[in-house]
């Protein structure tokens, strides 16, 4: 089985397994034998909701929080329900949020963006100004550096939403930051920009100007429409492949500098303390990572043996995913998963493995490989390299124990 | 200027135009000189809405209807606000709807799909059965055959939302219909399938089995999450490139046949009566088409001359867009627009043209070309070929008159 040649379903369904999945004429099934109310009566009129929400039947597919994780809900995080999604796009409405002093209400009319510091012409842009610059559209994932952080010292959160849900993937439209820096006449000898938001926490971060000039967007649309308030309306920074903390929401200020600021968010936070007590700083690019989203603790298997779809997400902040391997036995044997589409750089990639489940217990893992040749490590490999003190930047392989009854648990394997 | 080499913004901003767009330090701008409330106070807590909606400041970016277009709201249509969107993905919440007897409420537990007719094994699938088949994920546009139909006899609807908004573009996940037909053992000598929905209107349509075996999906996710009720929850058909009427919502039945059914929806409706009174039937693939979404009547230009971003959408039901041309003078001179990303087949493509507007009146048009070599025709060319009796399948070039004051009107050019 290779990602170039999707597995044959016929092969999957050979023998006894086929009878498990094939539909059957259910003679006693009144849903088939009798005309049902929804086939007799009118449904909702057009535009019953000018802007629609999910059906109430999907009420459980929402952002969730973990009460004990943060001191209050204003500097906190919610998690994307990745266990219940498929494909690659994350709808804004259920995309995880992280903010440090609450999601502020800022109107387009009140929006201002300063570009200053070591520039020939300090400038202030209105929202309408930004709309006059050439713009780009691209898909990018945003992953919080703390995603899977609670897993560093062992399996803790029983669900992919909690262990890996600080990530979303949207199509952004905005102005390349490069154009605004050029407009201001940035000093080309300078090596950093400092970016901050209009919220009280401001969340200031230093970014290498090389990245700022490359692919960073000053974005005003996500998945085609305006950013939601909790995602930085009206303007946020999009920093493809880099940790989510740099993706400044309610973007207010860009300062061209020769040195990083060493702000709170890049010293006491968002650094990785190693075994010797020295901390890694400026760990910008999110290394290749993957997770099986179903089956997973919140998405148990409710059918018996036979055909089973294993599905998950893979991503890399350093390029495009080239391959995803899946194991059913905790790493003894690996199979190459099928990728849903040619992977794009710094965007989520959906993978599938179609298996004939024998009904026995499984240890499910996935392993991502990107176009730099980097292979997603085990947690043991990460621990050996970085010790046990880290919280951020855990891209270790995740293990789910799937039992014979189809239930799934977050476990640690040595 | 070519689509391979994006236009230089420097070139666009040369001279007087530059001063128009560049931000300025506004000494009297209290939004800059004074700390504002949103920078002093907390915003909304995390997960203020477990499933979020757009900010109220964007209250006007919604589906809209046209009261006089249909007899009632149960067999009617709403329009996507394409004039206010950017990028290519359409959020489900503002994606146009068309249904013939209302959007029904159908639970996954009550869902059944019959595959019958000329098959070895008539089958009934539950939703859970479908989840066990290998699945695909892809982006596709869905355009109602009637999109722009009111424009056939002249400019009528003053806004891109109304003239071209019966279209949306989402990432779908589902089971290839081919797999279900194979599971049932379809008679390979048969040439058609008949598909219908569980709503009262049922909206039955005949589809060539060649297409059914090619790329049609029995889809349960759109943009990663469950289909919304108005988009066919829990299961709809996705028929890439083909007219939207075939994209059966609340999919109930698939019948393998040797002939088309000649149902209401493919005889008295969704056919094109030509000048000689004979009607074209089974005009499945939507020909290449494009529209400038901004500036447009609902998205007038509120700034003076100088840098102006012209943006729009292009698509083809026969393949991928290869080029989009834009004219500012009603077709006398054409420029090649910049495409936001490598176009995918049967998916919306976003184009941009960055111009230095001289402040004078313009006649804006766009023209799409696809990888079959097909060039989007003028309305005059379509009229010459098909007469004036058509309503469906109008893919003629659209003209916007943009006045010196920035207002925009839907006009006809000869």
UniProtKB/TrEMBL annotation, chains A, B:
Give TM regions. none
Tell me yes or no: is Metal-binding among this UniProt entry's keywords.
yes
Q: Where does the Moybdenum cofactor oxidoreductase dimerisation domain start and stop, copy by copy?
A: 282-398
Superkingdom classification of source: Bacteria
What cofactor requirement does the entry state? Answer: Mo-molybdopterin
Q: What Pfam family is a match, any one?
A: Mo-co_dimer
> Could you tell me which Gene3D superfamilies the record lists for this protein?
2.60.40.650, Oxidoreductase, molybdopterin-binding domain (3.90.420.10)
Q: Which GO terms describe its molecular function?
A: sulfite dehydrogenase activity
This one is known as Sulfite dehydrogenase
Keywords for this protein: Metal-binding, Molybdenum, Oxidoreductase
UniProt EC number = 1.8.2.1
Domain Oxidoreductase molybdopterin-binding stretches:
106-262
